[in-house]
Amino acid sequence: MNEERLRELLEGLRSGERSVDQVLDRLRASPDEEDLGYAVLDHHRTLRRGHPEVVFGSGKTAEQVAHILERIHARGENAMATRVAPDKADRILQVLPDATFHETARVLTWRAQPVDARGRGPIAVVTAGTSDQAVAEEAAVVAEEFGNTVIRITDVGVAGLHRLVHRLDRLRAATVLIVVAGMEGALPSVVAGLVDRPVIAVPTSVGYGASFGGLAALLGMLNACAAGVTVVNIDNGFGAAYAATLINQD
Predict the structure, then answer these.
(1) Whether 68 and 91 share a structural domain
(2) pLDDT of 44
(3) What is the dihedral of CA 42, 46, 51, 53, to 10 degrees?
(4) What domain range includes position 53?
(5) 195 shares its domain with 86
(6) 8 Å CB contact between 156 and 128
(7) pLDDT at 30
(8) What angle do the packed helices 20-27 and 3-15 form, to 10 degrees?
(9) Which of 141, 129, 227 minimizes the C-alpha distance to 181?
(10) Same domain, yes or no, for 145 and 222?
């Protein structure tokens, strides 16, 4: 249940279209949990947090992901799963042909209703290199599904700062910036020194051996000298998009 559906329920009570018992029966399910045996769905999350539960696809079978998405979609909510491998997505799409798989992002979406624009301004998703694109696209797709306009700025890492400087107008047009980088993770600090907006830094696991699977980038971002940088976990494009959405939407 979301705010709109709750309002409709209460308006029905006021107009006499619904009885008190009918409204009570519907509200008794809130907090609204659905036990599938292998998962307990939180259908109350939209009303509580503004967005429905999102499925983490890694570690779940295709059948489990498809079933969870079906149950979310059946409640009139837009359903989404992250970290879905292409072969798993193929099996899910056989069951849910109306869903959409965003291959680079590894995100599967299935809309039950249109996505309304809700942001105060655009979110910029900035990548240091092409190798960071999968994580950046996860952030971009999730942000768009949450009602944000997204500006994509790609391959502007510190190895060629002129590329970043040439895109300053686009950077400064954003309300929030998600900056995705691997290797030494220097880009978020540079970006934060050029804009007066919140910067959410996403370290990626891209890099040679001494990058330690993204740990070097994570520590570099945590030690950024520019103020206003917030850091999420390694490869966590979803978490960055969620945080940016909370900042960007009233």
Answers:
(1) yes
(2) 73
(3) 10
(4) 31-110
(5) no
(6) yes
(7) 61
(8) 160
(9) 129
(10) yes
**Residue 12 lies inside a defined structural domain of this protein:** no
Residue 54 token pair: 């999102």
DSSP at 113: S
A 10 A CB-CB count for 19 gives 11
pLDDT digits (tens, 9 = 90+) for 118-164: 889 999 999 999 999 999 999 999 999 999 999 999 999 998 989 99
Please give the pLDDT value at position 85: 96
Question: Please, which pLDDT band fits residue 3 given cuts at 50, 70 and 90?
Answer: low
For residues 90 and 115, the answer to whether their CB atoms sit within 8 Å is no
53 or 191: which leads in pLDDT: 191
The total number of structural domains in the chain stands at 2
The mean pLDDT of the chain is 91
Q: Which domain CATH number covers 193?
A: 3.40.50.1970
Closest CA to 218 of 197, 240, 198: 240
Between CA 152 and CA 22 the distance in angstroms is 47
Looking at residue 197, its amino acid is: R
